[in-house]
Amino acid sequence: MSAIDLEFNEIQGNILGGFNTNVEVLIGLTADRSRTSDAARWLVDLAPDVTSVADVQEQRNAIKPLARGGRQLPITWLCVSVGSEYLGILREDLFVRDEAFMGGFRKRAPTALGDRTDPNSWVVGSTGAPLDVFLIVASNDEPAAQQWADQLIASAAAKGLRPTYRETARRIDDLEHFGFRDGISQPAVRGFDAKGDVGPGYFVFGYERDPGDGGYTPSGDPSNFLRNGSFLVFRRLSQDVRAFRDFCASKAASLVGDWPGLTGQHLEALLVGRWPSGALASSSIFSDPGRQPNENAFNFLDDMAGRNCPLGAHIRKVNPRDGPRDEVNVPRLLRRGIPFGPVVEEKPGADRGLAFISFQTSIKDQLEFLTGKWMNSRLRPGPDAGHDLLVGRSTTTRSLRISGPQGPVQVSDDGLQWIVPTGGGYLFAPGRSALRRMLDPLPAGVSWRLQKAVSLAVNGLFEMLAIER
């Protein structure tokens, strides 16, 4: 088998295929540490029910909503992942040399992600209720999804895995709560997508990142447990829609002397980098032009100074493209997020936001790199870029430079945030065979134990030397 021959029956379907269903029930389980073998047996028994890439490919058309009046059998999919700390308990022989994964979400959030919220107050993955197992139950039929979620929670509780988080997320067409199209730009994976140009090893362990490299799996896996798996990052991000819209409207009004005609909607688009339709935002385009052909086929070689789309716009932070100091070879993420909560027009005061979910084979070099070195930095993709006012975090006031018709204007966040992290986790979504092997005996010998001790010591040193961004 060559490195590019992906084992679609083994890889979980939400990784490469993406569920993209209208309803997803998110479930967080916290383990009774005295019943580890019971929990491992539950995961082993769950393996046949986990949805593979092959399943998604086969059932994709059947799960799409039918035209009005059509009838359709419910189809329900499942994604299973295990938290970094708990995985080390279930599989003592596994010590992944990714300091982010080994360090864990709660430890890494303040420094690597700029998330200084109190973990005791998190909705999911809090200090007292770690996210040991994370389930995604996805379907075209909400009652079917809820029924299976009930069954999974009951069977897990019988094995010492108590439910500490449950939330139903629902798609709003293809929008997020601020009203912008989401998920437009995804990397095309070689060996899966028709025109894939990004190595699958950036998203699934055991496959090539660059042609001929033999396949990527970090050392510290004597049982070859990682193959066909991926790191899953889950972040629950609450969105204050009214505050964001009010801020942009107020700020646009305050800039009327420097930018006649600037509207709150135009400023929103410039902060995001796209109009709600997904069209590229520009200082010189004053209203949404609607969906465009080849909407993702653009770079910034003709906008090196950010005169059209601001250098600090969200899309230039999280998806670097050709432009000034851009690093176009930055490893990408496969994003599988979905909104939670009702739209603001239905229940203005309700909790709402984005269940951010991404897959990658290095949390440190992919998710944390893009977050810490780009999204939370005022210096990328250029020295005058400014902050990502939409999602970026900072210990100081965030500001963004935008080129207006009468010269540049500076937009400060006035100390406000419109997106607040409310928990999450760093997890591993194993291949189906790995789930079946959860109870396999540990490898013989002591060499892996010595390597693990050294790896943990090195990771601990990195944590001690971590500098807050």
Describe what this molecule looks like in 3D:
The structure is a single chain. Helix 8 packs across helix 9. The chain is α+β, with helices and mostly antiparallel strands and 469 residues long. It folds into two domains: 13-237 and 422-465, no CATH class; 240-331 and 365-419, no CATH class. The chain has helices at 13-16, 36-46, 53-63, 84-90, 99-103, 105-112, 142-157, 241-254, 264-272, 314-318, 363-375, 432-436, 447-465, and strands at 23-31, 76-83, 133-139, 161-170, 230-239, 334-335, 338-340, 353-360, 399-404, 407-412, 419-429. The strands form two sheets. Strands 1, 2, 3, 4, 5, 6, 7, 8 and 11 form a nine-stranded antiparallel sheet that branches. The protein is globular, with a radius of gyration of 22 Å.
